[in-house]
Amino acid sequence: MIAYCGLDCEKCEARLATVQNDDGLRAKVAKSWSEMNGVEITPEMICCEGCRSAGVKTVYCDSLCAVRRCAISGGYDSCGACARMSDCEKVRMITEHNAEALANLQEFRK
Fold first, then answer.
1. Fewer CB within 10 Å: N-end or C-end of the chain?
2. In total, how many domains does the chain have?
3. Residue 2 within any structural domain of the chain
């Protein structure tokens, strides 16, 4: 369940709230994401099964994430499959703060 950007969707609280149908966790994630992003996110918006899955996604993951849109338009399973990954500002915003995401993407290169 590795996202296009290398984040592990199985660790994402939005996905956990969805698959566990946990309204308390949805409320916690909505509050946290609202504060982090300076926009109102309601618990009802916290519904995601993973950005590479065929299931439901948050609005951000579904249509706003520049990394996901780029990978899909390029036909990649992840940014790790893209030859331009090392120079990509979009994915660097994730990987420079998350060593695990970078390591996950490097696995796609093998």
1. C
2. 1
3. no
15 occurs within a structural domain: yes
Cβ neighbors of 82 (< 8 A, separation 6 or more) are 71, 74, 76, 88
Distance CA 46, CA 18 (A): 7
CB 98 within 8 A of CB 6: yes
Q: What is the pLDDT of residues 89-109, one digit of tens each?
A: 999 999 999 999 999 999 887
CA–CA separation, 105 and 77 (whole Å):
10
d(CA 6, CA 29): 20
Q: How far is CA 30 from CA 6, 50, 87, in A?
A: 22, 17, 32
In DSSP terms, 2 is beta-bridged to 8
Expressed as residue numbers, the domain containing 54 is 9-109
Residue 3 covered by a domain: no
Cα 108 to its chain centre, rounded Å, is: 16
The answer to the question of residue 24 being in a domain is yes
